Automatic annotation (TrEMBL):
Subcellular location(s) per record: Membrane
Main location: membrane
InterPro entries: SQR/QFR_C/D, Succ_DH_cytb556, SuccDH_FuR_B_TM-su
Domain of life according to the entry: Bacteria
MF terms (GO), sorted A to Z: electron transfer activity; metal ion binding
Binding residue positions for heme: H79
Function: Membrane-anchoring subunit of succinate dehydrogenase (SDH).
Keyword terms of this UniProt record: Heme, Iron, Membrane, Metal-binding, Transmembrane, Transmembrane helix
Cofactor note: The heme is bound between the two transmembrane subunits.
UniProt source species: Candidatus Riesia pediculischaeffi
GO terms (BP aspect): tricarboxylic acid cycle
Complex formation: Part of an enzyme complex containing four subunits: a flavoprotein, an iron-sulfur protein, plus two membrane-anchoring proteins, SdhC and SdhD. The complex can form homotrimers.
Cofactor(s) needed by this chain: heme
Full protein name: Succinate dehydrogenase cytochrome b556 subunit
Length: 122
């Protein structure tokens, strides 16, 4: 009987380029934004009945609420900047070359964190 051995494929060899990662993360951040918005709307709707509870919920005093809110801010900022990047590429304003695509991908990631820190911590 001829038995074939399983071949271990090392999938770490194939790394995705930065522009592909930015495109995939753009889709993931869009899905995350939907869930974050539902969470925020649910949080606000639960507190409409109690006027004194409303401002305590919106202040995000608990640590988990702050972390979720910061993740939402990063996701939203990234999604907007990546969307602008995709629109500039689609309208052929910045071009289709690989180097431009890689540079714009890196700029999108860097500017996301710069804008996040400027908006949330200053």
């Amino acid at each position: 009987m001829n038995k074939k051995n399983l071949i271990n494929l090392d999938l770490d060899i194939r790394k995705l380029p930065i522009n592909a990662m930015v495109s995939i993360l753009h889709r993931i951040s869009g899905i995350m934004n939907i869930f974050f918005l539902m969470w925020i709307v649910k949080k606000i709707c639960c507190t409409v009945e109690y006027r004194e509870k409303f401002f305590t919920v919106l202040s995000f005093r608990s640590c988990s609420s702050k972390i979720i809110f910061y993740i939402f801010c990063i996701s939203f900022i990234y999604h907007v900047l990546s969307g602008v990047r995709h629109m500039l590429i689609d309208f052929n304003i910045i071009g289709y070359s690989i180097t431009i695509s890689k540079v714009s991908s890196v700029l999108t990631i860097i500017s996301t964190f710069v804008i996040f820190f400027l908006l949330c911590f200053l």
